[in-house]
Amino acid sequence: MSRTQRTDEGHGRLGSVLSGLAVALGCVLFLGGFVWGAVLYQPYTVPTGSMTPTIGAGDRVLAERIDGSEVRRGDVVVFRQASWGDLPMVKRVVGVGGDRISCCTDGKLMVNGKPVAEPYLPKGTGAAATGIPATTVPKGNLFLLGDERSGSLDSTVHLEDSNRGSVPRGAVEGRVDAVAWPSERLGTLERPEGFADMPGGISEPGPVGLMVWAVVAGAVLVLGGAAYGPVAKRLRRGRGRERPRSRDRSGESAHVG
Question: Is residue 155 among the annotated active site residues?
Protein backbone atom coordinates (compact mmCIF):
# COMPACT_ATOMS: atom_id res chain seq x y z
CA MET A 1 0.00 0.00 0.00
CA SER A 2 1.41 3.39 -0.98
CA ARG A 3 1.90 6.43 1.22
CA THR A 4 -0.81 8.22 -0.79
CA GLN A 5 -3.35 5.51 -0.05
CA ARG A 6 -2.46 5.44 3.63
CA THR A 7 -2.77 9.22 3.83
CA ASP A 8 -6.16 9.19 2.11
CA GLU A 9 -7.40 6.47 4.45
CA GLY A 10 -6.19 8.44 7.48
CA HIS A 11 -7.89 11.56 6.31
CA GLY A 12 -11.02 9.56 5.58
CA ARG A 13 -11.17 8.14 9.10
CA LEU A 14 -10.59 11.57 10.64
CA GLY A 15 -13.25 13.09 8.40
CA SER A 16 -15.73 10.39 9.36
CA VAL A 17 -15.10 11.02 13.05
CA LEU A 18 -15.50 14.78 12.63
CA SER A 19 -18.66 14.39 10.54
CA GLY A 20 -20.14 12.13 13.22
CA LEU A 21 -19.35 14.68 15.91
CA ALA A 22 -20.90 17.43 13.77
CA VAL A 23 -24.11 15.44 13.37
CA ALA A 24 -24.26 14.64 17.09
CA LEU A 25 -23.66 18.26 18.11
CA GLY A 26 -26.14 19.42 15.47
CA CYS A 27 -28.84 17.13 16.85
CA VAL A 28 -28.24 18.46 20.36
CA LEU A 29 -28.50 22.09 19.21
CA PHE A 30 -31.47 21.51 16.91
CA LEU A 31 -33.57 19.51 19.34
CA GLY A 32 -32.37 21.52 22.32
CA GLY A 33 -33.44 24.77 20.64
CA PHE A 34 -36.95 23.43 20.07
CA VAL A 35 -37.25 22.04 23.61
CA TRP A 36 -35.90 25.31 25.05
CA GLY A 37 -38.45 27.24 23.03
CA ALA A 38 -41.32 24.98 24.07
CA VAL A 39 -40.44 25.46 27.75
CA LEU A 40 -39.98 29.25 27.65
CA TYR A 41 -42.41 30.35 24.94
CA GLN A 42 -46.08 30.01 24.13
CA PRO A 43 -47.38 30.68 20.58
CA TYR A 44 -50.47 32.81 20.14
CA THR A 45 -52.49 33.92 17.13
CA VAL A 46 -53.54 37.57 17.38
CA PRO A 47 -57.24 37.78 16.39
CA THR A 48 -57.59 41.52 15.71
CA GLY A 49 -55.67 44.44 14.22
CA SER A 50 -55.59 46.45 17.46
CA MET A 51 -51.77 46.18 17.59
CA THR A 52 -51.20 47.29 13.98
CA PRO A 53 -48.61 48.04 12.63
CA THR A 54 -46.48 46.20 15.23
CA ILE A 55 -48.61 43.04 15.03
CA GLY A 56 -51.34 42.43 12.46
CA ALA A 57 -54.57 40.46 12.64
CA GLY A 58 -53.82 36.76 12.24
CA ASP A 59 -50.12 37.11 13.05
CA ARG A 60 -48.50 34.27 14.98
CA VAL A 61 -46.43 35.54 17.92
CA LEU A 62 -44.13 33.98 20.52
CA ALA A 63 -44.79 35.07 24.09
CA GLU A 64 -42.22 34.38 26.79
CA ARG A 65 -43.80 32.80 29.85
CA ILE A 66 -43.10 35.30 32.63
CA ASP A 67 -44.55 36.34 35.95
CA GLY A 68 -46.61 39.52 35.95
CA SER A 69 -44.12 41.13 38.33
CA GLU A 70 -41.53 41.15 35.52
CA VAL A 71 -43.62 43.33 33.21
CA ARG A 72 -42.26 46.80 32.40
CA ARG A 73 -43.68 49.83 30.60
CA GLY A 74 -43.55 49.40 26.85
CA ASP A 75 -43.91 45.61 26.95
CA VAL A 76 -46.44 43.94 24.67
CA VAL A 77 -48.18 41.31 26.77
CA VAL A 78 -50.72 38.53 26.45
CA PHE A 79 -53.24 38.64 29.27
CA ARG A 80 -56.65 37.30 30.23
CA GLN A 81 -59.13 39.36 32.28
CA ALA A 82 -62.69 38.23 33.07
CA SER A 83 -64.18 41.73 32.79
CA TRP A 84 -62.60 42.12 29.33
CA GLY A 85 -64.15 38.92 27.96
CA ASP A 86 -61.91 36.28 29.61
CA LEU A 87 -60.08 35.60 26.33
CA PRO A 88 -56.34 35.97 25.58
CA MET A 89 -55.70 39.56 24.47
CA VAL A 90 -52.55 41.33 23.25
CA LYS A 91 -51.89 44.96 24.27
CA ARG A 92 -49.00 47.26 25.16
CA VAL A 93 -48.31 48.29 28.76
CA VAL A 94 -48.06 52.09 29.03
CA GLY A 95 -48.49 52.45 32.79
CA VAL A 96 -47.84 50.48 35.98
CA GLY A 97 -49.18 50.83 39.51
CA GLY A 98 -48.95 54.41 40.76
CA ASP A 99 -48.51 55.98 37.31
CA ARG A 100 -50.75 58.86 36.30
CA ILE A 101 -51.88 58.47 32.69
CA SER A 102 -53.46 61.12 30.49
CA CYS A 103 -53.72 62.17 26.86
CA CYS A 104 -53.15 64.21 24.96
CA THR A 105 -50.66 67.08 25.22
CA ASP A 106 -49.26 68.06 21.83
CA GLY A 107 -50.64 64.76 20.57
CA LYS A 108 -48.53 62.71 22.99
CA LEU A 109 -49.35 60.25 25.75
CA MET A 110 -48.46 61.63 29.17
CA VAL A 111 -47.10 59.37 31.92
CA ASN A 112 -46.51 61.07 35.25
CA GLY A 113 -46.59 64.44 33.52
CA LYS A 114 -43.96 63.51 30.91
CA PRO A 115 -44.67 63.07 27.17
CA VAL A 116 -43.78 59.64 25.83
CA ALA A 117 -42.35 59.05 22.35
CA GLU A 118 -44.27 56.19 20.71
CA PRO A 119 -42.61 55.31 17.38
CA TYR A 120 -44.67 52.11 17.15
CA LEU A 121 -47.92 54.00 16.47
CA PRO A 122 -49.27 54.12 12.89
CA LYS A 123 -47.74 57.03 10.98
CA GLY A 124 -49.76 60.20 11.10
CA THR A 125 -51.89 59.22 14.10
CA GLY A 126 -52.00 60.68 17.59
CA ALA A 127 -51.59 58.93 20.90
CA ALA A 128 -55.35 58.59 21.40
CA ALA A 129 -58.43 58.96 19.24
CA THR A 130 -60.60 60.73 21.82
CA GLY A 131 -58.18 61.59 24.63
CA ILE A 132 -57.68 59.95 28.02
CA PRO A 133 -58.78 61.74 31.19
CA ALA A 134 -56.11 61.80 33.89
CA THR A 135 -56.27 58.55 35.82
CA THR A 136 -53.98 56.89 38.35
CA VAL A 137 -53.19 53.20 37.89
CA PRO A 138 -53.95 51.17 41.07
CA LYS A 139 -51.01 49.46 42.76
CA GLY A 140 -50.24 46.04 41.33
CA ASN A 141 -52.08 46.82 38.08
CA LEU A 142 -51.22 47.65 34.47
CA PHE A 143 -52.68 50.20 32.05
CA LEU A 144 -52.81 48.77 28.52
CA LEU A 145 -53.35 50.30 25.07
CA GLY A 146 -53.36 48.92 21.56
CA ASP A 147 -50.93 50.42 19.04
CA GLU A 148 -53.91 51.06 16.72
CA ARG A 149 -55.56 53.48 19.14
CA SER A 150 -58.61 54.29 17.01
CA GLY A 151 -59.97 50.74 17.01
CA SER A 152 -58.54 49.09 20.11
CA LEU A 153 -60.77 47.84 22.91
CA ASP A 154 -58.24 48.60 25.62
CA SER A 155 -58.01 50.37 28.98
CA THR A 156 -59.67 53.48 27.58
CA VAL A 157 -62.90 51.51 27.11
CA HIS A 158 -62.85 50.30 30.72
CA LEU A 159 -62.12 53.57 32.54
CA GLU A 160 -65.43 53.33 34.41
CA ASP A 161 -64.56 49.89 35.81
CA SER A 162 -63.53 49.49 39.44
CA ASN A 163 -59.85 49.23 38.42
CA ARG A 164 -60.07 52.38 36.25
CA GLY A 165 -59.29 50.52 33.07
CA SER A 166 -56.33 48.60 34.42
CA VAL A 167 -55.79 44.85 34.89
CA PRO A 168 -53.89 43.02 37.66
CA ARG A 169 -50.32 41.95 36.93
CA GLY A 170 -51.44 38.40 37.68
CA ALA A 171 -53.61 38.45 34.53
CA VAL A 172 -50.46 38.43 32.35
CA GLU A 173 -49.71 35.10 30.67
CA GLY A 174 -46.65 36.12 28.67
CA ARG A 175 -44.60 38.90 27.10
CA VAL A 176 -44.48 38.96 23.30
CA ASP A 177 -40.88 38.72 22.13
CA ALA A 178 -41.25 38.04 18.42
CA VAL A 179 -43.55 37.67 15.45
CA ALA A 180 -43.12 34.18 14.02
CA TRP A 181 -45.50 34.52 11.06
CA PRO A 182 -46.07 35.92 8.44
CA SER A 183 -42.58 36.13 6.98
CA GLU A 184 -42.79 39.84 6.08
CA ARG A 185 -43.15 40.70 9.78
CA LEU A 186 -40.82 38.00 11.06
CA GLY A 187 -38.52 39.27 13.80
CA THR A 188 -38.18 40.33 17.41
CA LEU A 189 -40.08 43.26 18.92
CA GLU A 190 -38.02 46.31 19.86
CA ARG A 191 -38.23 47.72 23.38
CA PRO A 192 -39.46 51.34 23.13
CA GLU A 193 -36.88 53.79 24.44
CA GLY A 194 -39.60 56.30 25.36
CA PHE A 195 -40.05 54.49 28.69
CA ALA A 196 -36.35 53.83 29.37
CA ASP A 197 -35.81 56.81 31.69
CA MET A 198 -38.77 55.98 33.94
CA PRO A 199 -38.40 54.04 37.22
CA GLY A 200 -37.82 50.35 36.47
CA GLY A 201 -36.71 51.10 32.93
CA ILE A 202 -37.60 48.74 30.08
CA SER A 203 -37.34 44.97 29.97
CA GLU A 204 -34.48 43.02 28.42
CA PRO A 205 -35.18 40.96 25.28
CA GLY A 206 -35.86 37.28 25.91
CA PRO A 207 -33.67 34.42 24.59
CA VAL A 208 -35.67 33.89 21.40
CA GLY A 209 -32.67 34.99 19.31
CA LEU A 210 -30.40 32.38 20.92
CA MET A 211 -33.11 29.77 20.49
CA VAL A 212 -33.37 30.46 16.76
CA TRP A 213 -29.56 30.47 16.44
CA ALA A 214 -29.36 27.04 18.11
CA VAL A 215 -31.97 25.57 15.77
CA VAL A 216 -30.36 27.01 12.61
CA ALA A 217 -26.81 26.09 13.65
CA GLY A 218 -27.96 22.59 14.55
CA ALA A 219 -29.61 22.11 11.17
CA VAL A 220 -26.46 23.29 9.34
CA LEU A 221 -24.25 20.90 11.34
CA VAL A 222 -26.55 17.93 10.78
CA LEU A 223 -26.82 18.54 7.04
CA GLY A 224 -23.10 19.27 6.68
CA GLY A 225 -22.05 16.23 8.68
CA ALA A 226 -24.45 13.94 6.82
CA ALA A 227 -23.21 15.21 3.45
CA TYR A 228 -19.54 14.57 4.25
CA GLY A 229 -19.55 10.84 3.40
CA PRO A 230 -20.98 11.05 -0.13
CA VAL A 231 -18.92 14.15 -0.97
CA ALA A 232 -15.66 12.64 0.32
CA LYS A 233 -16.29 9.38 -1.59
CA ARG A 234 -16.88 11.27 -4.83
CA LEU A 235 -13.70 13.33 -4.33
CA ARG A 236 -11.61 10.18 -3.71
CA ARG A 237 -12.95 8.61 -6.88
CA GLY A 238 -12.09 11.77 -8.80
CA ARG A 239 -8.51 11.79 -7.47
CA GLY A 240 -8.13 8.12 -8.35
CA ARG A 241 -8.98 8.75 -11.99
CA GLU A 242 -6.60 11.73 -12.20
CA ARG A 243 -3.44 10.11 -10.72
CA PRO A 244 -0.34 10.39 -13.03
CA ARG A 245 0.82 7.29 -14.88
CA SER A 246 4.46 6.00 -15.09
CA ARG A 247 6.27 3.36 -17.12
CA ASP A 248 7.26 0.04 -15.49
CA ARG A 249 10.35 -1.92 -16.54
CA SER A 250 8.53 -3.70 -19.34
CA GLY A 251 7.54 -0.38 -20.85
CA GLU A 252 3.89 -0.78 -19.96
CA SER A 253 2.17 2.15 -18.36
CA ALA A 254 1.10 1.78 -14.72
CA HIS A 255 -0.55 3.84 -12.03
CA VAL A 256 1.79 5.26 -9.42
CA GLY A 257 0.90 3.72 -6.08
Answer: no
